[in-house]
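DM from R.C. (forwarded with permission)

"hey, sorry to bug you on a friday — could you get me a structure for this? deadline for the figure draft is monday and I only need the backbone to look sensible"
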Amino acid sequence: EPMHAMAIAEHAELRRQVQRLSAQCASLSAQVDKLVTVLQVGPEPAGATGFARIDNQEQLLREIMRADGISRKEALEIMHRMCSHNNSWNRLYSAPYYVGIAVALFASVVSTALVFHPTVVELYASKVAGEDLPEGVEHVNAMTLNQVGAWSWTWVE
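My reply, with the result:
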């Protein structure tokens, strides 16, 4: 009889372990399903990031499945087409930003040259501003960059 009681206790412990493992497997399975969905969904919708993006995409996917009465695979294909269509104009819409960045970079290089580059400063001073070299200087290359910058800044202002 004591052996029988021990066997029952061991059997009960094994059942508890099996239940815990089953629960862990179910949880892992749900996580894997969610990760597979994230990997299959494709491009991120504008303005959505992180888990909000995943939730929004999953909600859209389920709505497509419900409204059209189609499978998850077919709904994913439709959602991919929707994302591609939505992102097709992104380059055009972002072009002004890229043009602005390019103009700013160009202006920074040109303005630095107009203040500190001896040859450019001398050319601009003689042709545009009508300025002569400072007193005691025979050639602009005899000046340091700081002296060129100080000289150009006096007539730039």
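R.C.: lifesaver. The chain has a mean pLDDT of 84.
me: no worries. Residues 41 and 77 are 9 Å apart (CA to CA).
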